Amino acid sequence: MRQAVVFGAGKIGRGFLGQLFCQSGYFITFVEAVPLVAEELNRRGAYTIQVAADPPSRFRVEGFRALAARQVEAVGEAVARADIAATSVGVPNLPGLGPLVAAGLQRRLARRGGPLDVVVCENLLDAPNVLRRKVLESMPETLRQVVDEALGCVGTVVSRMVPDIPPEFVRKDPLYTSVEPYCILPVDSTAFKAGIPPVQGFEPCDKIHGFEERKLFTHNCGHAVAAYLGFLAGYRYTWEAMADPEVLGASRGAMEESGRALIPRHGFRPEDYRAHVEDLLSRFANRGLGDTVARVGRDVLRKLGRMDRLVGAARLCEEYGVPPRNIALGIAAALLYREPSDPSASLMARLIGESGLEGFLQAHCGIRPDEPLGELVLAQHTRLLKGRRVS
Length: 391
What we know:
alpha/beta
């Protein structure tokens, strides 16, 4: 039986990668840093993914074991024997995988095993190179020159939406996982060293950067616009926000604006892009998923960064002569985001209070108040203040 190692048994590890490898006939070794999760996986030997479809369905994942991340020898051996590996540990934890992957790679090389491909499922454009650098740093100097041929670090675009699990569900079942039906993972076909594996759901792409930008500036951008406007309208769930014609129109408009730049930039077919936008709008409105405005809007300071989903999309539009009116509306709504559970929102409010709105826009977002984008954002901000109640 083919072997897969999955670093991280969290929402994406269990709720996406686990399904992909299980349905493709792989035996899975999960490597998990949370002891309770690893212990529970081993105790049960199977878990069920709740698929929020109409009607709802379930997918049973079995044929796996779990190792604690601290079991370095056992993890190294699993990596040495694997046909493929994948990561879903979160960007801050990705560098820590370097020594574990390096330990397994050394064993493979000593046994004259073939190259190892690691599918990197992290929310960072440069994630494959981050992992490669950390593996190189952990390898003996005598072996570093062969890493380029022995290790494939494969970029991906993770678009499956997996909402936060309510604490009461986690207390009842630490392995509870709910996902949307969408189960496709674009992978960089040029990065594999051992050949593209037979994994159902992998979508090989030879120009992965285009799909990465489409995810950030279409999916993430439209989702953020819906969340921040939804918050101002008092909605808790994204499906509620998407039922509001104003929110729906702004989200669609923002993604269409991005598309007028992304289509010529990456050669997407216009009809395919339009279908993608409509599919996303339908997925955002999935009531059964129970996704919240707070989850989608969380970490607002990062999402207002100069190269992130909102400002980055607006700058891309400007580059192609597209007025980013709906994206500017999303930026303005984000500036008014005051979700009490989000420390980033509290910090943003304090920074705006200290430097003023225009000062914050320039310092944090790189938007001058006297440039076209700044004027658009400030005008939309004024309109929101007049038209909506903001706490």
